[in-house]
Structures are given as C-alpha cells and as structure tokens.
Predict the structure.
Amino acid sequence: MNRAKPTTVRRPSAAAKPSGHPPPGDFIALGSKGQANESKTTSTLLKPAPSGLPSERKRDAGAALSGASALTGLTKRPKLSSTPPLSALGRLAEAAVAEKRAISPSIKEPSVVPIEVLPTVLLDEIEAAELEGNDDRIEGVLCGAVKQLKVTRAKPDSTLYLSLMYLAKIKPNIFATEGVIEALCSLLRRDASINFKAKGNSLVSVLACNLLMAAYEEDENWPEIFVKVYIEDSLGERIWVDSPHCRTFVDNIQTAFNTRMPPKSMLLQGEVGRSGGDLGAGSSPHPSLTEEEDSQTELLIAEEKLSPEQEGQLMPRPRYDDLAESVEEYVLDMLRDQLNRRQPIDNVSRNLLRLLTSSCGYKEVRLLTVQRLEMWLQNPKLTRPAQDLLMSVCMNCNTHGPEDMDVISHLIKIRLKPKVLLNHYMLCLRELLNAHKDNLGTTIKFVIFNELSNARNPNNMQILYTVLQHSSELAPKFLAMVFQDLLTNKDDYLRASRALLREIIKQTKHEINFQAFCLGLMQERKEPQYLDMEFKERFVVHITDVLAVSMMLGITAQVKEAGVAWDKGEKRNLEVLRAFQNQIAAIQRDAVWWLHTVVPSISKLAPKDYVHCLHKVLFTEQPETYYKWDNWPPESDRNFFLRLCSEVPILEDTLMRILVVGLSRELPLGPADAMELADHLVKRAAAVQADDVEVLKVERIQLIDAVLNLCTYHHPENIQLPPGYQPPNLAISTLYWKAWPLLLVVAAFNPENIGLAAWEEYPTLKMLMEMVMTNNYSYPPCTLTDEETRTEMINRELQISQREKQEILAFEGHLAAASTKQTITESSSLLLSQLTSLDPQGPPRRPPPHILDQVKGLNQSLRLGHLLCRSRNPDFLLNIIQRQASSQSMPWLADLVQSSEGSLDVLPVQCLCEFLLHDAADDTASGEEEDEGESREQKAKKRQRQQKQRQLLGRLQDLLLGPKADEQTTCEVLDYFLRRLGSSQVASRVLAMKGLSLVLSEGGLRDKEEKEPPMEEDSGEVDALQGYQWLLRDLPRLPLFDSVRTTTALALQQAIHMETDPQTISAYLIYLSQHTPVEEQGPHSDLALDVARLVVERSTIMAHLFSKLSCSAASDAVLGALLSVFSRYVRRMRKSKEGEEVYSWSESQDQVFLRWTSGETATMHILVVHAMVILLTLGPPRAGDGEFYELLDIWFPEKKPLPTAFLVDTSEEALLLPDWLKLRMIRSEVPRLVDAALQDLEPQQLLLFVQSFGIPVSSMSKLLQYLDQAVAHDPQTLEQNIMDKNYMAHLVEVQHERGASGGQTFHSLLTASLPPRRDSAETPKPKSSPEHPPGQGRTRAGMQVRALGPEDDLAGMFLQIFPLSPDPRWQSSSPRPLALALQQALGQELARVRQGNPEVPGITVRLLQAMATLLGSPHGGALAMAMHRSHFLSCPLMRQLYQYQRCVPQDTGFSSLFLKVLMQILQWLDSPAVEEGPLQAQLKLFATQYSARRRISDVRSGLLHLAEALSFRRDLEVVNSTVRAVIATLKSGEKCTVEPELISKVLQGLIEVRSPYLEELLTALFSAAMGATGPNPTSKAIVVVSSLLQEEEPPASGKQDTDDSLESVCLGPSSGLLVDWLEMLDPEVVSSCPDLQRRLLFSRRKGKGPAGTQVPSFRPYLLALFTHQSSWSTLHQCIRVLLGKSREQRFDPSASLDFLWACIHVPRIWQGRDQRTPQKRREELALRVQAPELISLVELILAEAETRSQDGDASAWTLIQARLPLLLSCCCGDEESIRKVTEYLTSCIQQWGDSLLGKRCQDLLLQLYLQRPELRVPVPEVLLHGEGATGSSICKLDGLVHRFITLLADTSDSRSSESRVADANMACRKLAVAHPILLLSFSKPLPDSITQTLSGMQTLPPSGTCP
C-alpha cells in the first residue's frame, strides 16, 4: 500500500510514510497541526481497528471520543427535550420537495453500483484499488461507504466517517467522480423514506458537504446539482444550508446568484439556524442524537478547524460562470413556482424568504420580492426574515436598470409604522444608496414626486432625512435637480416648491448642505426638456426666489439665538453665527456666478428681470419681494431674517463678478448700477467686521483696475472723431469719486495686498488712506508738512484742473462737430460737469467736499483708520510718522494711541515713541492740582490719559529693560529718539532728550544700591551734567547695549554738529569718548573727523565750553574726553602700516601724510591735526594731564623738529600750521606752542600777529623780540611791510604799558623817521596824559596804591574822584590815586569771583549801591556830567563793574541795579546840550551787549530790563534791541514764568512808544503760553490782554480830566491786535478769568458826563463773540451773575440787556426748528428766569432808562418800550411773575414818589399794563392820576377800541346794525369801567375819530391807531 507521492498539500506529514492499519479506536490525537507529536504517521493514528464487532467499535469509539473529549476539555452540550413535532409549514415544505423529486428527473439517483466493505478495511480497499489502477472499484467502494452512511444516517459508524475524512484529506480527487458526487448529493437530500419523526443526523450531511468541498475546492466550475440540492434544503429543513460547518461550501454555491449578502451584524435572522446540527426550526441538536454522537460531531468540528491561511484559501470564488444562465433559469422557475402557488399569505415559509434573501442578486428576484415585501414585513411571523430580505434587496439593487428603478419605486411606497421596522427600513435605504451611485438621485426624485402625489407616504420626510444624512454633498444636489424639474413644469410650481422646501428643511432639522443645494439649483441642464423649455424667463426668476428662500431657511434656532445675542452685545454661539454668515456669502458667490455665466445661456432676460434677480440673491431688493408668494417669513421675523441674510461678508469672487458684469456689454447691468451695487455690498460687509470673521478678503490686485474701469467714459460708437485725434482718458465724475471710497474700504480690510498697491501706485487713494489714518480731511493732506510742497500740490491741482477743462471742451467740441454741429463753450458744455480725467496713478486730485464728508463718515462708522494703523506689514503708520517733520503736531496720533483697545502691541514702536514725545511736556501736570473748573468728565478723561501715558511708558521700558527685550525692538526704540537729536529744530531735540530720559531713567532707578557709589565717585561730573545721566549712566546699562552702540555713536556724531546747547554737547562728547566702538579703523576715523569739525568749525561753542570765566569740572571733563579721543586715534594711526589705506579716495584731497623724525608715519585728515593743535592751545586739564602732554610731545616734541606733512593726492608738502592756527598758538599759555608758532615767521606775519588782540604779555614779549631780530636781520624788508609807522609805534608803546618787554629796536626803527612829539622826551615811551589812563606797568613802577577796606566811605571817595563842582584850589590834589585804589580793589575782587570765592558783600556791590544812591539824589545830573568830563577815570570803573556783572549773571539784583545805573547816566547824557563822549559810547555798548546776552538767560530778566529801559529812558535803539532779545529767547523754547503785571507794564510802554516789535513780542509771549502745559496755561496771557483793554481810553469826545488820562492808556490801533489775541487765547471770552473778563464786557467807564456812557469800540465785537462761541454752561453762569443779587453795580445796564436779548435770539437756540413759522404757533420760551432774577432785570431796565434821562423823558420812554419784550419774554406769560414785577414797581413808585426814578417806574408799569391788559393785574391808583401814556404808545386793544367806535357810527337801518351798535356801546362802557387807562391811552386820537365818524368820513385816523 505504498504511495508514490502525496495527494494533498494540506497535511504534509500524512504522506511521508506508507499507511498502515490505524490503532484501535481508543485514541484519537487532537490539537493543532504544528505540534511535535504530529511527526508520527497520522494515517496510523486515524485508521480504525481491523477486528471487532460493530458494537465493540461503537463502544471503543465512544470511549475514545469520551477520552478525547476529556483530554481536550470540550464540554458536552446539554441534552434537550424530545424532538418537537414538525410544523405544518415544515410538512408542507417536505411534501413539496418529495413531490418535486418524484416528478422531476433533475436530481438523479446514484448510477454506480456500490461495493460495500467493512469500515475497518475501507482504507485498505481504496489503497489496493489505487495500486491496481481500478478507478471503478474506488468509485464503487466509496459509493458503498456512502450507502452505509445513508443506511445508518441516524447513527453513522465513526470508523467509516473518520476513514472518509482521512481520505478526503489525503486523496480528495477520488471523490470528484460523477458517481461519488451523485452518491454524496443523495446524502444532502431529504430521504422521503424516513418518517418525519426521525429526521436523521445532520452529521452525515455535514460530512457530505465537507467531502464535496474537499473534492471541488480547486475546481472553478461546479456541477449544477449542488445548486439543486441547495435549493431543496433551503426550502426544506435547512439541515446543512444553515450549518456553520458547511459555510464554505454553501458560500461557494451562493456565488451562482451573485448576491451581496448582508453582514452578520445586519441580519436579524443570523442567530437562527446557525448552530451545529440546525434543523431549520430551532437551534438545538437532533433529539435522536445520543451523547456519544454529539461528541462525534464535536470531534468532527475539531478536525475541521483550519488555520487562518487555509481559511483565506477557502474564501468563496465564482463557481458557476459557465452555467450562469441555466442556474438562473432554474432558480427563477423554482421561485416563481413557490411564489405563484395558491396559498394563504400566512402559509409562506420563512425558508422561502431566506432563499429569496440569498438569491436577490437576480433583478427578477428583486422585482418579484419587492412587490410582496410590505405584506411580509407586516406579518409578525415573517418579520425577521422579511427584514433580512429587505436588506438584501436594497444591497443588491446595483444595476440601476428599469427593473431596479421599479424596485426603488416600490421600496419608496412601502409604509411602515413600527419604530423598529422603520429604523431597519432607513438602514436598508442607506445600503440602497451605497449599492449604486445613481440610486441616490432616483430615490430623491421618487420621494419628492410621491410627496407631491395624492398617495403620499408619511415616511417621505424621514426618508429624505436619512438620504441627506447619508450623502450630505450629493443629496442636496439631486434634491435641487428635482426642484429644477418641478419649476420647468408648465404649471407654476413656485408656491408649492417653497412650501415643500420649507417642510423638508423643517422635518430634516436643517441638516442639509444649503450651499450644495443652492449650487445644484444653479447647475446648467442639457436635457431636452430644458433646452425646449417654454418658460425660460420664469424658470430663472423662480430659481432666484428658491435661492433666496433657501438662504433664509438656513437660519436655525441656534443662528437666531446667536443673532439676537449679538444685537444685544453678547457673544454667544458665535461659531454658529459665523458659519451661517460664511454660508450665505458662499451661496451669493455661486449665485452671482450663475447669473454671470449660466443664465445668459438659458435665456436672454429682460434688463429689469436680470437686475431684479441679481439684487434678490444679494438681498438688496425690496423686502416684499421675499415673502409675497406665501407670506413667509412671518411678519414677526421678516426684518430680522432679512437683516441676518444681508449682514454677511462678501467674497472676492462675488465682488469681482459684479464688476465684470458691469463691464460687460452683453449683460443688462450697467456700469453705474454695478458701481452702486458694489459700493453698497462693500460697505454693508464692512459694517459686519469682527475679529473672528473676514468680511472683505480680497487677494487679487486686479480689483482696483476693475473698479476704475467702471468709471471710464466711452463716447458713442457712431460718432467718428477726426483722424489722428486721440481722445483723452476720461471718467464719469460721480462714478470716479464713488470708486475711491469703495477702494479705500477694501484697502483698509486688505492692507497687505490692496492697501500696499494703493499706497505705492495710486496717489489719490493713498491720500484718502492718510486722511482716515490721521483723521484730518483737509487738502493738501496734513502729512505734507513742508509749506513749499503743499503750495506745489495746490498749484499742480490748479494746473491739472485747467488742463482737464480744456481737454474736455476740446473733446466735446469734436463730438458736437460730428453730431449737432454746435460750438461748445464752457457755459454750454454738458460734459464739463460730468467728466473728469482718468489718471488714477497720476498726482492726487482734490476730492469734492461731499466725498470728504462721506470718507469721514465711513471712517467713523467702519474705523478704517484704525484698521490701516493696525497693519504692520506694510506699516503705513510708521511711514507717515517717519515722513512727518518732528516739529509737526500730530494730535491724531494721540487719539490713535488713546483709542487703541487692549494691548499696545498692535502699534509700532515708532508710534509709541512719537506719542510719548507728543505728550512729554504734559508729564509735569500729572502731580499738580486739577483745575476746579473742570467737570468730572474732563477729570476722568485726564486721568484716563495719564493712565495711558504710564502704560505706554511702561511698555517702552519693558521693550528696553524687560526680560523679553530683543535686539530689534531695542534698536527701533532708541533709533527713533536718536535720529531726532540731530534735528535742525531746537524743540525737536529737546523733546527727544526728554523722551530718552523718560524711557531710560527707569533702568537707573531700579537698583538703588548700584546707583549710589558711582555718584559719590564722579560727583563733580554728575553735578555738572546731572540732566544727562540718561546718556552717561542709564544708556550703557541697557541689557542689549552692545547692539545699539554703533547706531548711538553715529547719531551723536551727527548731533554734535546741530546742537547749540554747550552742556548737551559736553555730554555727547563724554559719551563718545567712552562708548564709541572703535575696534575698526573706519568708525574710529569718522569719530575723529566729526569731533575735529566741531572743534575747528564751531568756534563759538568751543569758546563757551572752554572760556576762562566758566572754567569748571564739566569743561575739564569735556577737554579730557576730547584729548582721549584724539590720543587714541593718533596712537592707532601711527601704528598703522605705511601701505595700508586708511581713507577713502573721495576724501583724498583733505588727507595728509605725516612723517616724524623718529620714523613713524600716519595718514589722517588735516582737520584732525588742526583740532588737536587747538585743544593743546587750551592748556592741560586740572585732572589727568597725561594725554595732553602725550599729544604735545607727539606734535611739538622738545628740541626736535615738527612732523612734516605731504598731500596724499599730489605728494606735495602741505602747510601743517596755517597762520590762523599759529595765531591761536601764540595766544595760548603753553610756551612750547608759542615757540613753535614763532619759528620761521616772515616779517609780514610778525607784523600781522603783533597787531592782533588777546595775545598774552609773555607771548607779546616774544613777538617783540622776534621783531627786533627781524630789524637786525633785514630792516628794509620789514620797513616796507609797515603801512602806518605812527600806529605801530603807538601799538608798541601800549604793549609796553601792558608789561611786555622787548621791541625797543623795532620801536626805534618806527620813530626814526617820525617827527618828534611835543610832549615826548628822548625815551621811546610816551608820557601818560589825562586822556590816556595809566597802565599797570607804570603803576607798579611809579607809586604804591593804597588798599581799601570795608569801612571806607565809597560814596565820599566817588565824589572825590568825580567832584560835582571842581574848585581851583583843589587842582593840586589829583583824584587818580583814589581811582587806582578803587580799580585795584575791584580787580582783586573780580579775580576772586572768577576763582569761585567772592566776599559777601563785596566792594563792587557797595560801590554800585553808592552810585545808585548818588544818581538818584538831586545831584545825579551833576555827578553824571562829572563822570562825562573825567571819562578816563569813569570808563575803567564802569568796565570793571560790567565785567563783574558778567561773572555773576545769576545775581539778578546786581544786574538790575547795574542796568538802572546805566540808564540813569544815559538819561542825563542824552541831552542835546551834552556832546557825545567815550563814556556815553561805552555805556550804550554795555546796554546793547547786556540786552543781547540776556538771550541765553530767562525771559523775566529781559522783561525787567525792558521795563526799566521804558521807564527811565525811552531810547528806541536800546528798547528795540532788548525786545528782539526777549523775542529770540522766547522762540528758543525758554519758558515764560513772568507775572502778568510786568508783562502789562512792558506792553503798555511799547504801545506808548509805538514799537514796531509789539506784534512779534505778543506772538512770542502768547504762543509760548498756548504751547505750555499745566492747568489753564493761557490764564496769565488773558489777564494781561484783559487788563490792557480794561484800561483803554474811551474815544475823545471833549475835554477830559487829566487824572483819567494818567490812569488809562490810549491803545489806538493796538486794541484790535489785543482783541484778536483775546479771541485766540479764550474763544469763549469769559471762561479763563471770568471776573476780569466780565468787567471788560459789562463794566461802566469811569468818566463823568457823556464820556461815562461811551462804550469801548471793541465791546460789541467781544459781546458777539461771547454770544456765538461760548458754551451753554458759560452763558448760563454769566446770566446768573448779571441777574444775581450779588452783581456789581458797575455793570453797564445797556450792555447787560443787549447780551440777554442776544441770548434769546442767538441762532444756535433755533437750530432744527421749522424755518416756515406756522400761523398759529406758540412762542417758545428761551430764557427762563426766577422771580429774584426778574426783579434784577427790572432794575437793569430802570437803570438804563435813568442813565438816558438826561436826553429827555421821550428817549427814556422809548428805551423802556424797547426793553419791554425782553421783560415779557422772561415772564413767560406767568401771572405770578407779572404780579411780582408789578408789586415791585408799585413799591418803588411809593418809595421814590415823583422823583426821576419814580417816574421811570411809572412808565415801565404803564407799558406793562398796556401790553398785557388781560392779566387783570390790580392797577395802582398812581397810574390813574399820572400823565398817562404818550402818543406813541401802542396798546394791544387799540384796534378793538377803534372798531367799537367805527361801529357806533354805523347809521344803517337794519336790525343787525342796530344790535351791533348797541353791543359796541355796551362794550365801550364796560371797557371804560374795567380798563380806563386803556381807553385813556386812546383818548388823544379819540376826538378826531369821533369827528370823522360824525362827519361821515370813511378814512381812518391819521395816526395813533392800529388797524
């Protein structure tokens, strides 16, 4: 029984050895195939025992199985109850199968003769037959084994089936014969011979299935008999069809149906019949199966377990591709037969439904099934299989043919109510949609049509909900296509479509993709029904309406809630609201695309309809168009819904397409309409701006061109222009100026692209952007600070406008010539007002005023300026700040920083720095008291502003000193301030230093412990430069100082050339010497050159820095710093190699090559050499002179020649020390420099130097010695160079007087040829005379000068020196010794003062006080004349006093006293009788120099000087020079802290002398006051102006008292100037100094008589200003003062009453009233006064009448009559007020009687009664006895009385006339009784009236009555 090769690959070990007999059936190995014990021959273990009876085998098998079961741990299944009887349905099915088998020969019985052998020898027989090659025997033996199994189906022999299983594993091919297949299939059929109670064991069927599977596993084409037995068992007991052990075999059979089976998770019947041995009705094992057989089944299961790899190989594959048609025909026949059989509905087998489930791959099966599904689903017995069948039908509906479309149609009509069934139905629909892509559209279409039909399915909406959930993107599209189909119908389905859509949205809970739905509505359809559509226009309009409804339907409850909350200012559910807004924006974008591209291809709409559609989708149409069809939205929500849909962002594509549509000539939207629509949409979207949504995002720059193209003007095409004529580019003005604001809004929201392009390429748009950023809407824009640029811009605009006008006229002329032949002029032009030039990239044009207003409104509502300022890339704000001049005021910047919400991080650093500079001067005001007049709001704003400033300062300090400080921000902050240090304007430099001090000072104050020691060490320097610690101490302490060292040094190097303050320059130089980075050659050379230019070119600054009078520690520190800079530079340059290039060729002409005798060389700038020499001339500093002597040794080595210099560019020898520098060296006190300067001098140079001033005595001695040598060497040449020998000789004598030595030879040369002098001896020294005061040298040689003490009488000594009346007897006594003693004492004290230790009080002060006392005495004139005569004595004394005053400028007392003495002496010497002399010239020079020098001092001293000059001596030259000095000081930024009295005194004096500098001084004074900080900075200036105006003389009208003229001042033309300044300083006139200014407006003049009533000329103008420009609070306060009880009696009543009348009639009160006064209007009461104030008003009226009484009673009566309307208006028609006035007047009449005041009270009371007779006020008796009213009085009842009298004259006979006469008679009588005064007022014209009436005249009286 050996085998040649293995027959299977599933178990390789089974074929390794020849098979032998298996052991007895007591052991069966179980387990996985990978164990080690499986190496034994499996066939040996599995063969049955050869001997033994069947019973024994049975027991053995049972024991083996039980043992195996025990070994493997398999648990037995519990035995169940006895076999249940088959149901009637089961019996019917069995009968049907048996009947079918009997009548049909399709399933054949086995045709092979079986050969039965014992099970134990089965394997041997098969092997033997195989060896013999007897296939028939193998087939027969196998059929015999099958026959034995069939016989013993209930209890099959274990050895038999195990042997068959073994054979199937090792030789599966032996089963693949027709006879064996038929035999095995017979096992799968139900044996009709077996009764129903003995169903047979399922083990045999399972064995047969697995044997067949093994046989046909590799075969692609299976026999049809498998399908037949499958159908038979499916309709029968489903013994093996539902068995899980036959699953692979069954699945392969089912491939014949091409059915997609639902997964187990979806099958509700999955657990039924799926367990082992399933008999179809239950899941329990067969009841006839014993425990042993159950174990055998488990064993079989264990043996059939496969690995995952083998299971993958046994996956079902198509087995019936060749027999598909026959199988399909067979299956359909079987199913039709089953379904068409007459039987009750309830008798349908569940197995049939399961078979249908398996065979739904056939479309005919699906169609047959779906028609009955609804009945089966509603049958409780068939519910579960019916549900599986429904799932299978839906999953297999994948062809979308006509049958499947019918299936879908039937599926949609299924109506189910139970929730379970309905949920399963929806699940099946999902699978239906997954089955084929076209099922979605068909399903939606059928659902919608069913919904609109009469037999609608109640589940339609739930179906749609499921569909929309399943396909959120495609379902809305197909739904939209259905709506398109509806709207193409001939009938109008719009109303139904709207209702259906609302219902769908409502039922689907808004879970629909509205954007996809709307896009589906707008898709172009190519079907015939659309191409041939009859109502295309209606279709487009209806689609538009559905689009609008769809957008509004997107408003869910959450969106509505979020919208309401947003309106209330709450931020809830913003994500929902933003999603809705973006959804609407996207739909509108698609809608505009549809109208642009699709609609024109559908139909050519009428322009009206097209524009309507466009506006409707954009929600700019009238509201009623959205709800007119069905009144939806409801009225309560309409406005809200429309607003929600309209307040949405606008997308770029939407805006661009609207512009393109407007440009298209084919589409009916014109350019003007497109521009209007785009403008509306842009502004509407911009109004919705928020931080979390992009409302106006635009990327394409082409938008600008598109907008501007809409503005272009195109002339009519039918007009032919002249050949060669090029028409200008013109734009329609209205569109052109509508385009710029639109682009401005877009640019503000897109600064990185649109904004940048506008800024760089479109100047007009850039101008508008700057306007909204600066909040200044003037033209030219405020960002142009240069006046020339502004003027140029205005002129260019005028030129462009003129050229534009000419071009338009010429163009219109050509058009007219081609059409109307009319000549076009400017007056007849039609296009001139409608067109403008289209040059958007040209110069900016002036916007019309209404455009500027529109831009201003846009900026206020949309915050465009804030958006542009917030942009950092590009940084527009920084660009503006950098372009504007530093002195330009930028209040808009302060508003920007003040209004910046939240953090300051959004603003650029430069903006913060500029704001800090803008308010740097306001910092001192934070600690002062707040003005009491400020309101709470103003105080709160001030506190808020101060808080913002502190926050800003903290932000900048954090950027510099904080832990997050970085290099970039540090550089930006410091660079902004440092750049301004080099500004040409003083104010800018001061502000920059202030800002740097604020920002950097925090760093030095944070650590006090580190701060104190350096201050102790460098106390001298710190004291001198205390205000510059920010530079010298704080700046180097910055954490990132190294990163800004270079930029700081460069900025300061530039600043030292612009700065004018010596202390500031000192600090800069000290810093540069310490911290300039000089590691590289280039920066070091630049530093040396910059400092050298300062030293050489700015001699004034250097003179001030190193003046001997101002020698201090600071000047020493500066000198040391300069020496340090140059010494390091020289050392470096001398170490550089000779060939190294250390300069740039552009500067080669100023470079010199230096060579020392020691061999060292250097190349440097010539100015650097000169600067070092100049520094050496200053002498060594007091501390640290090492570097000084180092430089001195380098440039002027001792006993060595000087270095030689050569020009670099020409190599010629250069002049190292020019003459001016040698002169500086000679003037120095360094001997080595003097000697070096005097070497090799030419004679002419010596002569030039000796004539120079300021040369020390020692240097002069050396000069004279060199001159002597020159005389000895070459006298002829020297004599030729002398121009004036007499002058030179005198000069030598003067130098000798100074103490110089030498020059005798030179002097003798000069005097040799001169004639001898009368008063000279042989000696060359001239004799001193009284005209020439003695010098020091002579004093030392001739006499001993006495010393003065503190007890000496200086006044007496002064009178001895300058006697008032010289006596001839005293001529022998010379005053010169006293004068010399006094001069010596003054000189010694002056030297001590210069050294810093003056005596207190000194002799100089005592002498000046004595002089002031003497000059102020009656002998002052005589003393001045004595000083004039002895000028050689007085001039030196006055010069010493002046020198002392210059040394102590801080002593203002001494300075003022000295000036007073000067002025007093000059006042006496200015007399015409006195000749001019040296003293007078010297004093004038001192006065002028003093005035000029006061420029650098405070303003107060200058004004004091000016006041003294105006008081003592009105010398216009001195006055004007002093005024100019004060003006210059004020303009330099000096603060003006002067009391108003002094300013008033000065201004009064200037007005009297009519100074031409008055207006300039006023401008300087008051501009400084207006620019000052603090509470009410202009109050002092206002006090000054008001005081001057208050003291003005009234216009001369006669002779005035002299006393009044002394107290007042005649301002003349200056009064207008003062009034203008008062208006500028205080626009409200009385707000700053109320009491003083009210006296100015309302006070009476002091004069008597007529002059006292005269009004100042400026008062009416000031009253008008006050009334029109003051705030209401100021007016009310003034009214309360004028009408209060505490008012001053000095107020002018006429001015007060005029002011009150103006307050009532000021136009501001009546703004907003109707200009057309109605006929019956009630008078409005403007001035409401209380009762006490009414009495005050009456007193003012009486006072005014009293002042005018001198003109007569008539004028007073007229005055009262004119003031009566004011009184009545204040009474407001109130009877109580009239009564109080009447009582007051009555009491006054009783008090004053018949006096003048009493008469005025009577007049006023009578006038009041005449005007208000109806008030029934009790009339005092005094009026009845008075004179009555004048003839000019007008009574309210005059017309009535005249009418009565006219009626009395009626003589007609009619009864009506008689009754009228009687009534008139009665009325006259009553009037005479009730109001006698009124009748008396009519008494004068009464006789004339009666006479005329009686005479029959019909004319009216000539006067006295009113009709």
Notes: Residues 787-818 form the longest helix (32 residues). The chain has a mean pLDDT of 76.
